[in-house]
Write the structure tokens for this entry.
Amino acid sequence: MEILEAFDLTESHRDTAELAGCSHHTVARYVCAREAGGLTDRPAAMLQLMDEFRPKLEEWIDRSNGKLRADGAHEKRSVAISSNLHPAAFDELMPKTLATATATVDRLLHHAHVCQTTADSVRLSQALTGQGVRPLT
């Protein structure tokens, strides 16, 4: 049964939720949206992650005569990330959930070349010896 149709029959958020198989909070949201005139039959337009890159992707598709592969377009740019933390410790940076940190690290390290260094920072050693950037006077 449709949420709003059930609400029109029962005029109760909780009874409607029971009939429609959803939360009474969902019913309330639908009713408020209908009353405000914001309820439409069409799904809401959502921003796609590729929207920013659409012109470039369309150019590549035209140049390749429609034979562009997703993995080919995916690996066209390089990104360098520097951190004092090992990627295994990124969950300390993102305390929301371990799943969020794991997913982020997984995205960052997918097809990545990880270069770990053990030497001291060049900028730190220069700063400790009085070299490098001079403060403005």
Q: What stands out?
A: The mean pLDDT is 75.
